[in-house]
Amino acid sequence: MRIPHTRQGGQVLIMVALSAVVLIASVGLAVDSALGYFVKAKLNAAVDSASLAAARGVTAGSSEEEQRTNARQSAKEFFDINYPDQFLLSTPTLHPVGVTFDKGNVTIDVSATASLPVSLMGVLGFKTLNVAASAQTIRKDLDMVLVMDTSGSLASNADAVRAAGKSFLNKFNSTVDRVGLLHFASEAQIDVPIKQVERGFDRASMTMKGGKIDQFAFVGGTNSSAGMFQARKQLNDIGQVNRSSLRVIVFFSDGSPAAFSSYFPNTGGKCKTAGALATFTALQNPALVGLYKMAVSDTRQYGDCDAMQITALPPWYNANNAYAKANDAALREFPIVTNTPRVVTSSLSSAQVQWTNVHRASRNLVEAMAAKARQEGIYVFTLGMGASLKSKEGPDNELGEDLLRCLANTTDAKAACRKPAEPVGLYCYAATDSDLSPCFTRLASAILRISK
């Protein structure tokens, strides 16, 4: 018996067609998914950079509205740079940037989408593939004191130092951040005290033409501990309930210290005021050069308070305590006469001994004050300028930049002063005037990164 032949060609064609659609859709899904992945990665990076840029941009402006405008403009500029239009044929959209002020914090919210045409997935009716990204940056509140060295060795660099200091202050938010300004030479002088309760700082009084920075006179010695002591005191005078989450000292200097302040034992006990005792940096002429008045950059005391009336060094730093209480146990925070880290005796028996003890005490004190500040959660950032920082000086042939690294507790500081458990700051070296502003910018960027 003959069995009839059934034609099945039409069914096969239908199955092939359906399989082709599925195959094409699968390939399209793989291709378009890969493209979407690259677009997503690019969009994420662009949104992140825009968020960080907005956090930096919000520092500009004298009102919240101006700061919002600057933040949004910065966000747009960085988004456009990092996500060019038509990247992989996609069309990006940056949504309105949110800028929210809450006491000392600024919250930046950035979001964006990008749509790209699909390829083979179009056979399933899809026209575009949409991806989204968002980022939030919270710029924390900041308490900061800028400490500027105005010693005579910087006189030839005065204009560059002033300009760099102004540029640095302009990188911070004058309505949210709290900033104090002081300078030191033979002694320290507070120019603009940091606010104790209210937020913000008077940037104009510091940076305007004829303002505090323009008034700096570059004369006198280098009393680094006076500057460090006053900076720490400014931050700690803010009550616990009002302190910012980030506290910073930015310390600029061009050389090693060769002076420190205290009440000094003196002939007949006639001098009842504290002063800053200074000596020459070089060994060739080791005589004491003067006892300088407190809270004034470079004014010598005479008569009963002349340097030649000093008979010994005090056991403890007591420059900011009443003379009668100088040896109270509660006030013994920073030793002068000590065996560590450098040996200092109370003796001023000869010019050589004077020179050695004053130099070593000057270094010991500023290191101890910076260490105490770090133990209290304060970051120390340092900036050094000039060739002298790379020359061995003092009785122990030390480099000035090693001292600045130690103050900041940098990762490359000498092992003797490195404290990994304490806040790690940054040291930047400016060889010339042209390096100053970039160094200050580097410090500002590091501080702003910590505050986010």
TrEMBL record:
Name of the protein described by the UniProt record: VWA domain-containing protein
InterPro entries registered for this protein in UniProt: Tad_N, VWF_A, vWFA_dom_sf
Pfam families: Tad (PF13400), VWA_2 (PF13519)
UniProt keywords, alphabetically: Membrane, Transmembrane, Transmembrane helix
First and last residue of the signal peptide: none
Residue ranges crossing the lipid bilayer per the database entry: 12-39
Organism superkingdom: Bacteria
Domain called VWFA: residue spans: 143-340
